[in-house]
Records
---
Amino acid sequence: MTPEALPETAAAAAAPSPPPGVVVVGHFDRTPGYGVNRPGGADSWLFTWTTGGRGQVRQGGAGAGPGAGDLVVLAPGVPHRYAVGPGARHWRFWWAHCATRPGWAAWLRPFAVDDGLYVVPRVPAGLRGRVEAAFRRMLADARWTGTGAPPAPEPPGDDPVAVAHGSAARELALCALEEVVLLAAAGAR
């Protein structure tokens, strides 16, 4: 499948992305017809962790069809599109937009495909629960206001997206994402 064959986003032909200094995390379960197109790429890195169904991702000239247990990472600045995979009934996935930490490059490098696309395939089933728990914690930490205790991790429910506004919330969310990257990369080797 070529990038031109992927559906357009429902909102616009060129979906905006968060700026690089912001951490945004979310959980979606989308049906056919859902898609995002960014002809200029994103300003931040995009991490997707598939928990069900199948997606279709294009970054520059490279592509992937992530299924359950696949971590796909898109570097900023490269045109990309993603959607529910061809023939799939849905695509259930966690996602995060943010800047990366310097150490993550070494963990992701063995999984480089091309054009800033990294695919960490088939993370072992025994690690998937912990990866999902880290994403749930990331979502909760991104919601922390800095007063009281951070919220407890819960299923995404009716509010599946959070933006980390304070520096402590941002750092905690990045710590959870760092756990995701390390678990996925170590487990897939």
---
Amino acid sequence: MIDLDRVSKTYEKGLPAVDEISLHVDKGEFVFLVGDSGSGKSTLIRLLLKEIEPTHGMITVNGHVLNTMKHKAVPAYRRDIGVVFQDFRLLGEMNVFENVALAMHAVGASGRVIRKRVPQCLKEVGLAEKYRNLPRQLSGGEQQRVAIARAIVNRPKILLADEPTGNLDPHNSYEIMKLLETINNNGTTVLVVTHDKELVDHFQKRVITMRRGTIARDVEEGGYIEA
């Protein structure tokens, strides 16, 4: 599903942000990616989204070799990857339904399919009754649920969540992680970047710890251990 073979990324003349990383994530896995700020986590996410190119090494995602992928093929490739961010990134002038539907409009879905799929997705994240609400009328946890609905509405094979609980209280953080676990149980490969030690320790998934651009630790059913 996700393969990195001796991948490095160096920005200009600095030290490598990612240094000779080799990594394999199977279809259907749930993986926590942890490490201090500057350890290379965000660079790794950007590489997987093909926002930046590796300096060395090969990246293969869902059968696509990113190194040789042409620019015009990138939008189609990204349709199989849902992304959730710490700051939600919802459009304030659009209601919940419209925010989620936007992702379907972007891939050319028909109005009929959108009217059917968006309510289904909102039900999955527990917001079926709030489809008309604007983001400012929702709690932080609810806004993140909308963001997750938007990320999965096109049924991506991979979900990347970059600090999805960073702006939430412990209760909402747990509920969001449970939702991501449910999405994973339904077949989506999930990669979560987080600093939340308690959540990592509680859910006991595969944990990859990065340090100074390298993988310092990779364990199954592990906890959060400082590298």
